[in-house]
Specification:
Layout lengths: L1 H15 L6 H8 L3 H7 L3 H24 L6 H28 L6 H27 L9 H13 L13 H16 L3
Length: 188
């Protein structure tokens, strides 16, 4: 039931927004009582935190798997990370929208927890860029921090416009993005 509440809440938050969706809206849409909701969550904000936590934790787990693959170069890992983010839009696009759009509705303590994990995701990309600079795959004169922000800006915004069933697949868009990025940072 917790999963059903979470999934339905994501749909409602996406459609109406977090602030405009009440607990009553959530339970009515599921045909359950408020008691059922409160059995799993102490508040609507706790539910939102659960959504945020689940989203970022899954991304960090997938990112870690990519980084641990010793058979791939930094360029290949970068492609896999971009592809992972785009692929995630199809399976968890609504959760992505909630993650980026509703972060402001978390209290300061919860925001700090999520922000720390978001920073870790970015720092991991920054480390990948630095490793590529050190091993000669990427130019030596780059600002790895700004490059990491740029990569995330390109990929994270795509949940607004990317349609997995559109004219380009996730892999094709990832390859276009990475080609665009690498033409600006790879050694000539």
């Amino acid at each position: 039931m917790k999963e059903r509440i979470t999934e339905q809440s994501i749909r409602l938050f996406e459609k109406k927004g977090f602030s405009e969706t009440s607990i009553q809206d959530i339970v009515d849409s599921l045909g359950v009582t408020k008691g059922t909701f409160y059995y799993y969550f102490s508040s609507k904000e706790e539910l939102l935190m659960d959504i945020h936590q689940g989203y970022i934790d899954e991304l960090l787990t997938q990112q870690d798997g990519i980084f641990k693959d010793g058979t791939k170069s930094c360029k290949e890992k970068l492609l896999e990370i971009v592809f992972m983010i785009l692929r995630d839009i199809e399976s968890r696009g609504s959760a992505a929208k909630i993650f980026f759009r509703e972060l402001k509705n978390l209290n300061a303590e919860r925001f700090a927890l999520i922000d720390t994990k978001r920073d870790q995701f970015r720092f991991n990309i920054e480390t990948l860029i630095k490793t590529g600079m050190d091993n000669g795959e990427f130019r030596q004169d780059l600002n790895a921090s700004i490059i990491a922000f740029g990569i995330l800006g390109i990929t994270n915004w795509s949940f607004h416009w990317f349609k997995p069933d559109g004219s380009c697949s996730e892999r094709e868009v990832a390859e276009i993005f990475v080609d665009m990025i690498l033409k600006g940072i790879q050694v000539s």
